[in-house]
Amino acid sequence: MQRDLLSCAAMKIDAAVVSPRARSGFDQFQVEQIEVRTVRLRLNEPFETSFGSIDSRLIFLVSLIGEGLTGWGEVVAAEEPRYSYETVGTARHVIRDYLAPAMLARPLTDLEDLSARFALFRGHNMAKAGLELAYMDLLAQSRGESLSQLIGGTRPAIAVGVSLGIQSTLEQLLRRVDQYLALGYQRIKLKIKPGWDVDVVSEVRRRHPDILLSVDANSAYRLEDLSHLQALEDFDLLMIEQPLDHDDLVDHAKVQAALRTPICLDESITSVRRARQALDLGSCQIINIKIGRVGGYSEALAIHDLCYGKGIPVWCGGMLESGIGRAHNIALASLPGFTLPGDISASSRYFARDVIVPPVTVSANGLVDVPQSCGLGFAIDLDYLSANTENVERIKIKNFTA
Ligand code: OSB
Ligand code: MG
User: Fold this and answer.
1) Which partner from 67, 150, 301, 381 sits 20 to 30 angstroms from 243, CA to CA?
2) Closest ligand 1 atom to 317 CA
3) 163 lines ligand 1 (CB under 6 A)
């Protein structure tokens, strides 16, 4: 184990005196080196959505070194541009050529400073988020706080659900549902697409009349499919996630107006501005917040605050993250507005061995503890990382001038 959780240093401030998010401008932090690394982890079983199936995950990790500390983040982009246009390749390019130089140029004052530097570059939210995550881990460590404390989290434990991919048979899916309910997960989300929807949902609901059940279409339907989507109304679903196009708000508003079941947007919400517009238009009643999709903590916190103020429930989505991204998701989901179970499963749901120690575990009543130790709250298994690394690059401050 190469990182001592108790050794994170320095300036411990009294959280009761200064509220966590009111402290901008407090710290000056010079990042000296950025390391980007890809690590391939096999999935325990293939994960299939309406846009395809994968059996391994190329995990893209970012670590920042500065002032004797190392902070870790994860870029959640996939290898192919299917969920979003970003890929591991585009993120590597954008980080190396634009974001890393902006980050290293001069000391960072706070998260706002970092996101303002990144805002000069359009899009590439997952690349930006990876660096923001690592910066927040550093900041938490330098203050001797947990990530959850740093962002104003209030929950000691978070409720979690599981996202179940499209299976080869209905029987297989039913077994998976039973398996994850027995493990304690509080909500089951079924991936759906045309041909794997009404009958499947009907059968799961028939067998489990009382569970929290939702579906996620990952944009597999068109506005013309409205009557088909209406057939899902009989199953008392918690929500229908992202039925239409990845960037649509207008047609979702039409679908929401025709359904009792809440629509939840995932892909379409890429910023706090888009979240506000979705709520103004009536495109959804619930929002899935993914730190990567929205470009980092700054935007994720802003969406949380917007929804919290309006009484719109939010929950934390997942991207088959390694433990590093998962630890950040746990911190995010500890904010008070995260009132629905997140897609934050145990490490073992996806990976035989995770890159963090200890792995994330889910209790028998479907809760994940929010770490209280400083930074991420998990140690990084550097030996295991090294053994599975496909590529590693280091970008140093001396390469750049401000
Ligand atoms: O739409 O929520 C999604 C995984 C990859 C890409 C998109 C999605 C998902 C999931 C899995 O549903 C959530 C998880 O990490 O467990
Ligand atoms: Mg989704």
Assistant:
1) 301
2) 2
3) yes
* 88 φ, ψ (degrees, to nearest 5): -55, -40
Sign of CA dihedral 293, 299, 300, 306: negative
Quote the pLDDT of residue 210: 97
Amino acid identity of residue 9, one-letter, is: A
**CA separation for the pair 172, 176 (Å, rounded):** 6
- Per-residue pLDDT at 10 exceeds 80: no
* Type of residue at 183: L
Distance 344 CA to ligand 2 centre (A): 13
pLDDT in tens, 154-192: 999 999 999 999 999 999 999 999 999 999 999 999 999
Catalytic residue among 128, 290, 396, 398: 290
Q: How far apart are CA 191 and CA 75, in angstroms?
A: 23
- Helix (H) / strand (E) element for 251: namely helix 250-258
Tell me phi and psi for residue 353, to 5 degrees: -140, 135
Kindly give, in sequence order, each residue whose CB lies less than 8 Å from that of residue 387, ignoring residues fewer than 6 positions away. Answer: none
CB 72 within 8 A of CB 61: yes
Q: Six-digit token pair at 87? A: 């890929």
Quote the pLDDT of residue 15. Answer: 36
Tens digit of each residue's pLDDT (9 = 90 or more) over 99-131:
999 999 999 999 999 999 999 999 999 999 999
Residue 243, judged by CB atoms within 10 A of its CB (0-12, 13-18, 19+), counts as: buried
What's the pLDDT tens digit per position in 25-73?
457 899 999 999 999 999 999 999 998 999 999 999 999 999 899 999 9
**Rounded to a whole number, what is the distance in angstroms from the first to the last CA of the chain?**
36
Q: Is 83 in the pocket of ligand 1 (CB under 6 A)?
A: yes
Indicate whether residue 216 lines ligand 1 (CB < 6 A).
yes
What is the model's pLDDT at position 24? 46
Task: Give which of 226, 233, 228 is closest to 196, Cα–Cα.
Answer: 228
| Reported confidence tier of residue 402, pLDDT bands at 50, 70, 90 | very low
Question: Is it true that the peptide bond before 107 is cis, omega within 30 degrees of 0?
Answer: no
Choosing from 12, 128, 189, 191, the catalytic residue is 191
